[in-house]
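Deliverable D4.2, example record:
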Amino acid sequence: MSAARARGLWNLVNLSTPLGVAGAVVAGCPLRPGPHGLMRAEGWRHAFPGGAAFTVGDVVFTRPGPEVTEELWRHEGAHAAQYALCLGLPFLPLYGLAAAWSTWRTGDPASRNPFERGAGLVRGGYVQRAVRRGPGRGRVRAALGDRRDAAQAARGAGGAT
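Output generated by the structure prediction step:
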């Protein structure tokens, strides 16, 4: 059995692909076969989530417009494999937490998101942004540094007496 077929069966059993199919039906996105054992739900017109495509189980939702590239199909195929590894639907809250972490670190939901990095940022059309110092993060580090400096001074003074 091929890896794509095993992934497809597992995403069927763990209910992530049925959720994707239901989402496509509700959104009015026609389904057709895609590459890499994936299904394509064409015509997603909603603003959320952003990007040219997104995946639910083995269903890849695409926006109207230019044809999806082979690199993007490979990226979305990696997300389908991540659904399987996360046992299906738990992928969604885990991805949300990873996107929040990345946004806090970089201002971008993909740059430090381990799911996006694992699927290939460039293949997904993302640009990696640098880690930034967010509001409050510098103050926390400074406060911890001040405490460390005070503790080191106290140890130094204690050792001298």
